[in-house]
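pls design
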């Protein structure tokens, strides 16, 4: 890559994070005392819990909005005042948990533990080694 192409790429608009649309979200029960959203990531077979405010804020990451747009939307829609530092920290945490995707994490989608999702239940009798055998 030439140095001018690299410089042009660096000057391009930064990649904005986007809340993943392939997550399975279970809203909290109406009569539940604790309002927590259950998120399930089918690609990694992991589950997460987010509070109502956290989930509302995570939904504002749409892939197009800048941090200042997200802060303005959070204030207007949800009456949440968030500092830029806290927003960046929250975004970094969601990116590390892979609940958000961005241009920088898109290439990592094929890096997955091959044993994820395997249940050994039916194979237990073949995998377990009897160390001690007793006769009654």
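designed seq:
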């Amino acid at each position: 890559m030439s140095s001018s192409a690299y410089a042009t790429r660096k000057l391009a608009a930064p990649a904005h994070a986007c809340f993943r649309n392939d997550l399975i979200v279970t809203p909290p029960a109406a009569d539940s005392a604790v309002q927590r959203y259950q998120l399930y990531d089918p690609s990694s077979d992991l589950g997460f819990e987010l509070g109502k405010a956290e989930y509302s804020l995570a939904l504002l990451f749409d892939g197009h909005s800048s941090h200042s747009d997200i802060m303005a939307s959070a204030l207007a829609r949800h009456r949440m005042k968030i500092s830029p530092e806290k927003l960046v920290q929250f975004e970094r945490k969601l990116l590390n948990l892979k609940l958000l995707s961005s241009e920088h994490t898109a290439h990592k989608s094929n890096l997955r533990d091959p044993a994820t999702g395997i249940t050994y239940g039916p194979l237990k009798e073949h995998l377990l080694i009897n160390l001690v055998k007793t006769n009654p």
